[in-house]
From TrEMBL:
All residue ranges annotated as the Reverse transcriptase RNase H-like domain in the record: 4-91
UniProt entry keywords in alphabetical sequence: Endonuclease, Hydrolase, Nuclease, Nucleotidyltransferase, RNA-directed DNA polymerase, Transferase
Species assigned in the record: Alligator mississippiensis (American alligator)
Name of the protein in its database record: Reverse transcriptase RNase H-like domain-containing protein
Lineage per the UniProt record: Eukaryota, Metazoa, Chordata, Craniata, Vertebrata
GO terms, molecular function: endonuclease activity; hydrolase activity; RNA-directed DNA polymerase activity
Keyword Phosphoprotein listed: no
Pfam family, one: RT_RNaseH
Length: 91
């Protein structure tokens, strides 16, 4: 699954890998509500993952999958000691 977020919206695509090529299966997009626009960039990125995983749950349940992201701080989110409660809940 790949996702991306901007100041106005978020999107995700479920990809299936076949012979080292990724093929899109499902596309998702949604406009951010005003409260979500006020979140920090890392919070928007995490929220986009949570949102996409919830939407794609029927496809992903019981399957091994990878989340693709262009937001480097997400890599160390689980090792951070002093994250806010929202980020800890999403991680």
């Amino acid at each position: 699954m790949a996702k991306d977020v901007s100041d106005i919206g978020r999107g995700a695509v479920l990809l299936q890998e076949h012979q080292e090529t990724r093929h899109p299966v499902v596309y998702l997009s949604q406009k951010l509500i005003p409260q979500e626009r006020n979140l920090s960039s890392i919070e928007k990125e995490c929220l986009a993952i949570v949102w996409a995983l919830n939407k794609l749950k029927p496809y992903l349940w019981g399957q091994q999958f990878t989340v693709l992201s262009d937001h480097a701080p997400l890599r160390w989110l689980q090792t951070m000691q002093n994250t806010n409660a929202r980020l800890q809940r999403w991680a």
